[in-house]
Structure formats: C-alpha cells, structure tokens
Design goal:
297 residues; alpha/beta; Rossmann fold; 2 domains; six-stranded parallel beta sheet; 11 helices; 6 strands; 46% helix; globular
C-alpha cells in the first residue's frame, strides 16, 4: 500500500458527463470535488454555465464554484493557488481530492504545478487593451504567436500572449500519486447531449439570468464573454430570435468541445474511457492502492 495522498483528475469535453462521474467516484472513495471550470467560478451565473445545483451535488462537497463576482477578474494563477490550498485541506482531513473540469489550462496548472512565464516588458497591458481586434491580430502575426492552443477570439488570452511574447514557463511531471482519466463520447451522442442541455437551460430561465446579470454588472466583463451570454445579448437587443440563439449556442458548444478535445489530446498521461462505469471502476481501483490518513499528510 502507498501512504501518499492520491489525487484523481477527470477531464473531457463539455456535456460529456464528467460531474456525474466525479460525484459517483467521490461517494465510493470518500472524496471531495474541485471544479476546474473557468465559468462556474462566477457567482449568479448558474444556468448558462451548467453549474451543478445543490441537489445535483448529492451531498458531495464542491469547491471553486461561486467564488468571484461576475465583474471581478480571476486568473489561472489565482485558481492554481486556491486549488492547491483546497487539495491540502482535503488531504489533511483524510479525504480524496477529485479535480474535474474541461478547462484544460486550469487542470494542467494543478496537476503539473505550472510555473507561469513572466511578462516580456515589450507591451504594456494598458496599451494592448486600447487596441482593436485587427491591431492585436497584426501583432500576433508579427511575433508568430498564432497557434492551435491560443483562443484568438478571447481578447484577454490574446493580450496575455502578447505580454509574454511566447515566453514559456515550466511544468513538472505528473506525480506518481496522481491519475488523469478522460471521458469521451461519440460525436452524435455529444451533439444530442449539448442540444438537450441547451433546451433545458432556456426552460430553466437562462434569458432571465443573463438579463439580470447584465443589468447589475453590465456587458463589459470577462464573465460575459462566455458562449451563451454573448448569444443571449443578441436576443435581448432584438438581433436574433430564441430559436436562432439556441441553434448558435449548440454550434458554439460543439466548437468549444472541439477545442477542448484538441487540448486534451496532446496529453499522453490521460487514460481515456468511453464507458463511464469503467472509468469509475478504475478510479476506485486506483484509490485502493493508497492507505493514508491525516497523520501521514
């Protein structure tokens, strides 16, 4: 038996069923869940981010959701620091930390203890924020910073890339007491799940949620750049019908799933599963190798 504290990570595309699987595992191994999602960390943004409700959490403690206001900036470095603190606390209490989510950089920052690159000093953040998309794209091309892992549709990501100018940080190897499981679905099933989820969101009051957040915090916040929130704005301002917004929402979520797939595909540490029950079984089997309590941590 290994007396090191284990860490389980579950990754995959949006709507793949990661949260449900994580909850089942947590109940079987006395675990607690850390959500690695760049959207569910915002308060009041529940429906549009598919945040698990209290009832859906089924009594399993969840961390790193509802931690910042929609108008507050939150970085991956802040996420990494908080996640590491929560993991240490969970382990002290003799529980198993389970990191689950589709935000690849958030997951990797914790699993591989990323040391993030420093600013190059060439461009200031204030200067870049005054530039339009065409000007920023021109700078990306000038410095050959365009690549498949950079989300060029997210202005903040583009600005951060220009501030670093391709500078790279460092990462550790996956610790021997950690495991990464990936859950994948065939494309048709994934599309159906996304479509069904979008329908449920609108039935649950998604438009009202967006309207309220916009009235309180405005549209010019990082939190409002999420797929559904941008699309809902076009409806609220009379530029699209509900059906058009739903259709676009599904298309954008499928595009998000493709980007997530690309990110995770490059990680050879991930053990992929088509069958959720098989993944659950392997996670329980992995945890059984460890025999520790708070005195060992």
């Amino acid at each position: 038996m290994n007396n090191e504290p284990p860490l389980i990570a579950i990754v995959g595309e949006t709507a793949s069923g990661k949260t449900s699987v994580a909850i089942k595992i947590a109940k079987m191994v006395d675990g607690e869940i850390l959500c690695a999602d760049s959207r569910t960390l915002y308060k009041k943004m529940d429906i549009g981010t598919a945040k698990p409700t209290i009832s859906e959490q089924e009594g399993v403690p969840h961390y790193l959701i509802d931690i910042v206001e929609p108008n507050e900036r939150f970085t991956v470095v802040q996420f990494q620091n908080l996640a590491q603190k929560y993991i240490a606390d969970i382990r002290k209490r003799g529980k198993v930390p389970i990191l689950v989510g589709g935000s690849g950089l958030y997951v990797d920052s914790v699993l591989y203890n990323f040391q993030f690159p420093k600013n190059s000093g060439t461009y200031s953040k204030d200067t870049l924020e005054q530039m339009n998309d065409v000007e920023l794209t021109s700078l990306l091309n000038k410095h050959s910073l365009q690549n498949e892992h950079l989300n060029t549709k997210n202005k903040r990501h583009v600005i951060n890339a220009l501030i670093r100018l391709g500078g790279s940080g460092s990462r550790s190897k996956l610790p021997s007491n950690a495991v990464v499981f990936g859950l994948k679905l065939n494309r048709e099933l994934l599309k159906k799940r996304i479509s069904d989820r979008v329908e449920s969101m609108f039935e649950d009051g998604f438009i009202d949620e967006v309207k309220h957040i916009a009235e309180v915090y405005g549209w010019d916040n990082e939190s409002m750049t999420g797929i559904g929130y941008r699309l809902a704005r076009s409806y609220l301002e009379g530029g699209a019908s509900i059906e058009e917004v739903k259709e676009s929402f599904v298309k954008r979520d499928l595009s998000l799933a493709k980007r997530q797939r690309t990110w995770f595909k490059r990680n050879s540490d991930i053990r992929w599963f088509d069958d959720p029950e098989d993944l659950i079984s392997k996670a329980v089997e992995f945890t059984a190798q460890f025999d520790y309590n708070k005195a060992n941590v």
